[in-house]
Amino acid sequence: MAFLQNRSISLVDMYIDNSEPSENVGQIHFSLEYDFQNTTLILKIIQGKELPAKDLSGTSDPYVRVTLLPDKKHRLETKIKRRTLNPRWNETFYFEGFPIQKLQSRVLHLHVFDYDRFSRDDSIGEVFLPLCQVDFSEKPSFWKALKPPAKDKCGELLTSLCYHPSNSVLTLTLLKARNLKAKDINGKSDPYVKVWLQFGDKRIEKRKTAIFKCTLNPVFNDSFSFNVPWEKIRECSLDVQVMDFDNIGRNELIGRILLAGKNGSGATETKHWQDMITKPRQTIVQWHRLKPE
C-alpha cells in the first residue's frame, strides 16, 4: 500500500470507504485474477447470501451489474436468479486491454439489483473496490458486505485530515459532497459547510466555506488549518455541518459528522481521526455519511 501514500487525491480516493454498512443488506462473494500476458482482468462473480426480500413472495430475483469506474457506459450484467435470497451466479467476466498501471486507477463497482418485470428494478446494495488495493500476484477472493443504496439519507461528505506534530497544525480539507438531501422547492439545496473546532463541549474556532447554489453534489475543495498541540490532539474534535443557505428564512442543517479524538466531546474516536494520528504528515481521505443531527 506504500504507493498509495503522498499522492494527489484521485478518483480512487473518492471510493475508499472503510465505514460499516448502515444496515445489513447481504453479502457478495467474488474473485479477481489478472492475466499479465494478455493484460486482462478476470472477474468471477460467485454468489450472494442473506439478501433482503424485495418481492411480496418474500424472495428476490437478484442480478449483478458490473462497471469499472470511471467508465459508466460499458456495463456488464449477470443472469437473473429467480426467487432466491442466496443466489449462485458463478459467472466470469473478462476486461481485456487493461495494462496493470491503467487498472490501478480503476474502481470495480458491483451493484446488486432485484429484477422487476413491471417496474423499475430495485437496488439491493453495492460494493466499490479500488483496484489499487488488490494484490494481483495472488488470485484473491472476497466476501464483501453490500452497502445499502443512498435513499432517504442526508448524503455523504468527502474529507481529508492531516496532522503535523512538528508545528501542531491540524488540517481539514472539505473536498466534495454527493447525494445531499434537497431542502428547497426546486429539488436542490444551496450548500455550504460550517466547521467548529471543539475541546470537550467547548467551541473554540469556527470556519465556513463559500455557498454553492442549486446543487446536491458540490465540490468545495476548501482547507482549514487549526493550531492544536500534540498533547491535546486526542481531546479535540471537529463538528462539521453541511448547511443549506436560505435568503429569507433560517439556514437549515442538511447533515453533520463529528470527527473526534478519544476524549473529544465524549465521543468515541473515529477511525479517520485514528488513522490521522497513526500516520502523521500524511493526508488521510475518507467518505463520511452525514447524520441528520
Folded structure, characterized:
By secondary structure, this protein is mostly beta strands. It folds into two domains: 11-146, C2 domain (Immunoglobulin-like), CATH 2.60.40; 155-290, C2 domain (Immunoglobulin-like, Sandwich). The protein contains three helices and 16 strands. It has helices spanning 11-15, 100-103, 271-278; strands at 27-35, 40-49, 62-69, 71-77, 88-95, 107-114, 122-130, 141-145, 156-164, 169-178, 191-199, 202-208, 219-227, 236-244, 252-260, 284-289. The strands form four sheets. Strands 5-2-1-8 form a four-stranded antiparallel β-sheet, with no helix packed on it. A four-stranded antiparallel β-sheet has the order 4-3-6-7. A four-stranded antiparallel β-sheet has the order 13-10-9-16. Strand 14 (236-244) and strand 15 form a beta hairpin. The longest helix has 8 residues, at 271-278. The radius of gyration is 21 Å and the shape is globular. The relative contact order is 0.16. Residues 1-9 have low confidence and may be disordered.
In summary, what is this structure?
Keywords: Repeat. By secondary structure, this protein is mainly beta.
Which H/E pattern describes the elements? HEEEEEHEEEEEEEEEEHE
What is the tally of helical segments? 3
Query: What about the largest sheet?
Result: 4 strands, antiparallel
N- and C-termini, Cα separation: 35 Å
Query: Structurally, how many domains make up the residues?
Result: 2
* Mean of pLDDT: 87
Keywords: Repeat
GO molecular function, one term: calcium-dependent phospholipid binding
Protein name: Synaptotagmin-7
GO biological process, one term: vesicle fusion
